[in-house]
Amino acid sequence: MLKLSFYRQKALEVLTPLYGEREAKSIRSLWFQERLGLSPVDCVLSENEHIDFDEFHNDLLALEKGQPIQLILGIAHFLGGDFFVDENTLVPRPETEELVLAILQKFKQKSLRVTDVGTGSGCIAIALKKERPYWTIKGVDVNEYALKTAQKNANHHSVKVDFIRLDALTETLQEVDLIVSNPPYIPERELETMQNLVIDNEPHLALFVPNDDPLLFYRKILESSTKNSESESVYFAFEIHENYGDEMKQLCASFQLKEITLEKDLQGKDRMIFARHGN
Fold first, then answer.
1. What value does the mean pLDDT of the chain take?
2. 39-to-8, 33, 210, 274 alpha-carbon distances in Å
3. Cα–Cα distance between 201 and 214 in angstroms, integer?
4. Cα separation of 11 and 224, whole Å?
5. How far apart are CA 43 and CA 240, in angstroms?
6. Which pTM was predicted?
7. Which of 26, 65, 74, 277 has a Cα-to-Cα distance from 12 of 20 to 30 A?
């Protein structure tokens, strides 16, 4: 049994060269909170106490190999909640939290039918349902294993979201009022410059698109959703690649969408686009 101060220092010694000091401390904070039930303040107050940390060595080896702490723990934080994640789901990003917050700000209707396309862990759909329990929300994904994780998360958060297997590239989306999506949008050529911890540990199916068709999923979603729509209005809320803001505006315009709004994330990058189809 060793002092907590030893584990804290050893963690930083290993993680800082890999991630930088700020990210290393963030990883350590999540790690110790989930494994030991200790908040950052608790860690400081208890650093001279001797504790059992049986998972420390194996966790540290996995971190050294570049595995994300969220996948090691099987848990990721998203908008104040814990979500199960695994090799079939993406680790939720802060910019996706921003998308959800923007949707909640823009849409306050009492009744809204929502589909989250490419739902993955279900974090978007579940977070929306928690804040708008009167909305009817569905999550669709081509990966049936991701859908099982999404359902597990819905049960964990005690919300009702219907999760359905659907291939957005080949199948038609049912008519709804709002379509939300954080689809694959990274061109395959960016594999060469991305961090190994993403490339080696997160599902490529949920990340990458062909170099010659980076807007593939958005176009297919719009084709499916606008072709035979009888609704007065269908709204769209997309997370997008920071380099394709102008192209996304043009794509939306080509489908005669209205109220096209490109918004930046907290890092100042083009990250969200909102639009409406119909009268």
1. 90
2. 12, 5, 42, 37
3. 22
4. 49
5. 38
6. 0.88
7. 74
